[in-house]
Amino acid sequence: MSDDTTVSPGLPGQMVVAPALDEIDRQIVEALGRDGRLSIRALADQVHISRANAYARVERLTTTGVITGFTATVDPLKLGLATSAYVTLSLRQSSWRTLREQLQAIPEVKHMALVGGDFDAILLVRAADNEGLRRVVLEKLQAIPEVLATRTALIFEDLGRVW
Q1: How far apart are CA 143 and CA 140, in angstroms?
Q2: What span, in angstroms and rounded, lies between the C-alpha atoms of 152 and 150?
Q3: What is the pTM of this model?
């Protein structure tokens, strides 16, 4: 292994090779996480490096997969998505591979994660109203054969952004 990579355990039998990041790299990632529209000049000024260095670092962080893309953070209420909930799923074991594609096909599912604990997956679901949420949970999620059970926790107020 070279000095510019670190190795950490991944899935059983796999190792994940990640580029070693210094403090400047971490500052760049943090700054772009706050505002992905920063110009290279503004980014360089914020982290106190030259524009050429900032450009090269952003390019390296992107090509090595540390930065996987740039997105806009939106207000779900202003998009007409007034009802949000976390929905937990208990799944038939070993079904997550086929289930992933089915969940990605549901437009109201904005984020999903496989987890360990009392349930197997958690979804962030955003819908126009309670009727839309009911339709997603009862008609879409519970209709999937691999889903054994669901639990829904309504979000009363988003207190932070997902990053």
Answers
A1: 5
A2: 7
A3: 0.76
CB 103 within 8 A of CB 123: yes
Cα-based distances in Å from 96 to 17, 34, 64, 111:
24, 32, 27, 15
pLDDT tens by residue, the chain, 163 residues: 444 544 444 455 555 667 789 999 999 999 999 899 999 999 999 999 999 999 999 999 999 999 999 888 888 999 999 999 999 999 998 888 888 899 999 999 999 999 999 999 999 999 999 999 999 999 999 999 999 999 999 999 988 765 4
Contact 122, 109 (CB under 8 A): no
Distance set, CA 161 to CA 33, 72, 74, 100 (Å)? 11, 11, 9, 23
Burial category of 132 from C-beta neighbours within 10 Å (exposed 0-12, middle 13-18, buried 19 and up): middle
